[in-house]
Amino acid sequence: MDDILIRLLGSLVIQSFLAIGGIYVILAELQRVVVVENGWMTIEEFTSLFALAQAAPGPNTLFISLIGWRIGGIWVGILATIVFVTPSLVLAAALARGWSRWAERPWFALLRRGLIPVTIGLLTASAVLLTEAAATGPGALAVTAGAAALSLTTRLPPVAILGMAAAVGAIGLV
Amino acid sequence: MPGHLNPASAVPARPPMHERGITIGDLFRCFLVVGITGFGGVLPVVIHEVVRKRGWLDMHEFTEILSVCQVLPGPNIVNISVLFGARVAGIPGAVVSVGGLLLLPVALVLTLGTVYAQFADQPAVEGAVRTVAAGAAGLLIAVTARLFWPQRRNPIVLGIGLLVLLAVAWARVPLIWVVLGFAPVSLALTWWWMRRYG
Predict the structure, then answer these.
(1) Using CA atoms, how far apart are residues A1 and A71, in angstroms rounded to an integer?
(2) How many Cβ pairs closer than 8 A exist between chain A and B?
(3) ipTM for this model
């Protein structure tokens, strides 16, 4: 178990540094390590844990918790989560310290301003891809349009809007 | 007059983040709510709680933080919570923010994971999961619109944004190559623009 733990956590530290833009970037590599190389679970289990992480509330980082949990129980799940978020915690905290000190420096102003175009492009692409995946028919498309309109025109919290969407789906309207 | 590229000059200066009267407890409670209500993508919830409901950040400040977090390794939402928490209250702020964000969701899936998985096969739950996914897509559309609107006259946002959109959604270029490829171009163009127009 110790050996598995060291390999799992060691791999997660490396993955954490590679996950620029989020967990989707490292899915293939995670699958290689967890399923192919070490045989810790089947591909079906891997996929269903990912689906579970997406269905549950909270960030997709939960997938890492679930992988640890499946391999070694609750404590390994918690440990895996901590190991995975620690590198970004350290980096982001260091950046926060520098932020006020560098605020007026031209290169830092450039960094803050110059990445906005990429961010807007990435967000638009995510919105397009998510809509494509979710738009299984005119009903689903109407739910997407309705949620966007409600979010833009009211102050309803996102969870209330998703609650309405869930109700529409649960009673079989869409 | 390209003053729109420098929104900081148009907006009255706000006090630095650690002087906005946000306590450690406020941070923890805020991210607790973000974590447990963040179905189908957490970004819309962060914007709702931090920008719209509490007014701790304005949309421009949030866009800057998100953009920097986008190129840091690790999950964006985790990075946002750490960076924002640390700017408000140093390391303790960072720890309570990310702790609040992850605490309830991790506890939930690790204790109820198996129950949750069995539940997912019920037809009513299946139907709800489908429409929640559709709704989550709508929320992301709204978020994108909200971030894009203040930048709509920025030619670099229009150009690079469109190319990134095509690269990701149409050509399906892996995200890491999109970031590594377009971030330097976007920075170079912005640098040129700032030197030329200020």
Answers:
(1) 9
(2) 381
(3) 0.87
* Digit-coded pLDDT (tens) for B49-65: 999 999 999 999 999 99
pLDDT digits (tens, 9 = 90+) for B128-187: 888 988 999 999 999 999 999 999 999 999 999 999 999 988 998 887 888 889 999 999
| Interface contact B109-A78, CB threshold 8 A | no
Give me Rg for the CA atoms of chain B.
19
DSSP states of A79-100: HHHHHHHHHHHHHHHHHHHHHH
| Helix or strand (DSSP H, E) at B16 | none
β-bridge mates for residue A20, sequence order: B73
Q: Cβ separation of B75 and A18 shorter than 8 Å?
A: no
CA angle at B159 for the pair B158 and B162, rounded to the nearest 5°: 80
Name the residue among A53, A95, A135 with its Cβ closest to that of B109.
A53
Question: What is the C-alpha separation between A40 and A31, in angstroms, rounded?
Answer: 10
**A57 and B105 Cβ atoms separated by less than 8 Å:** yes
Q: Encoding tokens for residue B161?
A: 């944004």
- The verdict on a CB contact (< 8 Å) between B120 and A87 is no
Residue B94: CB atoms within 10 Å: 24
The amino acid present at A84, given as its one-letter code, is F
**What pLDDT digit, counting tens, does each position of A34-47 carry?**
998 999 999 888 88
CA distance B146 to B67: 14
pTM of the model: 0.86
- Which of the residue ranges A152-156, B107-111, B142-146 would you say has the lowest mean pLDDT? B107-111
Q: Kindly state the greatest CA–CA separation across chain A.
A: 56
Residue type, B103: L
- Which of chain B's residues have a Cβ under 8 Å away from the Cβ of A24? 175
Residue B118 has pLDDT above 80, yes or no: no
> How many Cβ atoms sit within 10 Å of the Cβ of residue B21?
9
